[in-house]
């Protein structure tokens, strides 16, 4: 019984609750519909605002992108210009370096040619000096040879002269000896003749003396 009563009471309360809740629910449903319409309207407005903002943002983004593109193009153009300027500067520096290198090479070539010319000149001067020294040495040698030849000729002449003088001296001595010998021979001959004459005289004297003595004896 108690359980049945409790069930009836619960049912009554539930029905009352349903009726109590149903009325406000209708109101709430109408309000909810209005609110949903407002929300939809608000959503549309918000969507329009968002779309407008999005469009403005897109436009701003597009402007930024366009500006960035322009800036990028300008930057690319500037970079290209800078590259050209850098390339021109590098080319100019390279040209200047090449010119400087060419000048150095030309100066080195001129110096090398000058050095070669100086060496050739020095060789010529050295050859001329050697030739001059050789000529001077040859002249000195020729002078020595000439002096030696003159001395040799003089010596030969002196020897010949000495020989002549010696021969003359020998001849003179021989002549003097011969003269002395001749004188001696002549003196001997004279002496011999004188002796013969004396002997003959003596013989004559002796004969005369004998004759005289004989005559005297005969006279007696």
Automatic annotation (TrEMBL):
Organism: Chitinibacter fontanus
UniProt KW Signal keyword: yes
Secretion signal, residue range per the UniProt entry: 1-22
Alphabetical keyword list: Signal
Domain of life: Bacteria
Descriptive protein name: Histone
């Amino acid at each position: 019984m108690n359980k049945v009563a409790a069930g009836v009471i619960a049912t009554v309360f539930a029905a009352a609750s349903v009726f109590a809740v149903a009325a406000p629910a209708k109101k709430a449903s109408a309000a909810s519909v209005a609110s949903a319409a407002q929300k939809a309207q608000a959503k549309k407005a918000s969507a329009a605002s968002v779309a407008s903002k999005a469009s403005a943002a897109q436009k701003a983004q597009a402007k930024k992108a366009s500006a960035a593109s322009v800036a990028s193009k300008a930057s690319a153009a500037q970079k290209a210009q800078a590259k050209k300027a850098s390339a021109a500067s590098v080319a100019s520096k390279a040209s200047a370096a090449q010119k400087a290198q060419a000048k150095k090479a030309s100066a080195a070539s001129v110096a090398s040619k000058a050095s070669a010319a100086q060496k050739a000149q020095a060789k010529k001067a050295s050859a001329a000096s050697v030739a001059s020294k050789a000529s001077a040495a040859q002249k000195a040698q020729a002078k020595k040879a000439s002096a030696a030849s003159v001395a040799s000729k003089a010596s030969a002449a002196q020897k010949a002269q000495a020989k002549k003088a010696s021969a003359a001296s020998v001849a003179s001595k021989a002549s003097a000896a011969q003269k002395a010998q001749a004188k001696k021979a002549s003196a001997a001959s004279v002496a011999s003749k004188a002796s013969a004459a004396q002997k003959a005289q003596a013989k004559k004297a002796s004969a005369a003396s004998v004759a005289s003595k004989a005559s005297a004896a005969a006279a007696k």
